[in-house]
UniProtKB/TrEMBL annotation:
Domain of life from the UniProt record: Bacteria
Protein's recorded name: Glucose dehydrogenase
Organism (species): Brevundimonas basaltis
Bias (Pro residues) ranges: 159-170
Membrane-crossing residue ranges in chain numbering: 6-22, 77-96, 102-127
Key words of the record: Membrane, Transmembrane, Transmembrane helix
Source organism phylogeny: Bacteria, Pseudomonadati, Pseudomonadota, Alphaproteobacteria, Caulobacterales
Length: 170
């Protein structure tokens, strides 16, 4: 594993954390898809060493279908870029299998660059939400959970004074 691949994995984990904390539901779905994609790649890496890239192509095809569906269902720009980058990831495998002169390092370099693009686009989507003033899904979920917990406590002990809900932070 090269330094660039390690840097991309570290950058991706940082981006996934930021997006999970500050992103909305579509961004969280993308993080979930990418985390599952990365976890399954850790399981199937031995197959790639033995030059069988079927599992990687299946993983990226599923990611392409999910990002393509998200692109047509949401009014966001970033699923289109992520679907295009995932399509290019699939094309690197196809080019490598069809043309013998393409080196493994060229394919690996293209893949690292495309993964940096995917992670950067996801980070920029959260920046776009922040600039537009949209609240992150995390604070809304915590506020909803706090209200539900307070209501449950009030129902459990009717003699106790009601607890005021925590204010949500945008």
């Amino acid at each position: 594993m090269t330094v660039w691949q390690q840097a991309e994995i570290l950058f991706g984990l940082i981006v996934y954390t930021v997006v999970w904390m500050r992103g909305g539901p579509p961004e969280r779905l993308a993080v979930g898809v990418l985390l599952i994609h990365n976890l399954t790649s850790f399981v199937t890496w031995r197959w790639e060493i033995e030059a069988s890239y079927t599992a990687s192509m299946i993983r990226e095809s599923v990611s392409l279908l999910i990002f393509g569906g998200l692109w047509f269902r949401s009014n966001r720009w970033w699923p289109a870029v992520m679907a295009a980058a995932t399509c290019l990831l699939l094309l690197t495998y196809a080019l490598w299998m069809l043309h013998a002169a393409v080196a493994h390092f060229a394919v690996a370099s293209a893949r690292v660059g495309l993964w940096f693009l995917i992670d950067l686009v996801l980070l920029l989507s959260v920046f776009e939400r922040w600039v537009a003033g949209e609240p992150p899904a995390g604070s809304a979920a915590w506020a909803k959970a706090a209200r539900a917990t307070a209501a449950k406590r009030r129902a459990a002990s009717p003699t106790a004074p009601p607890t005021p809900p925590r204010p949500s932070v945008p």
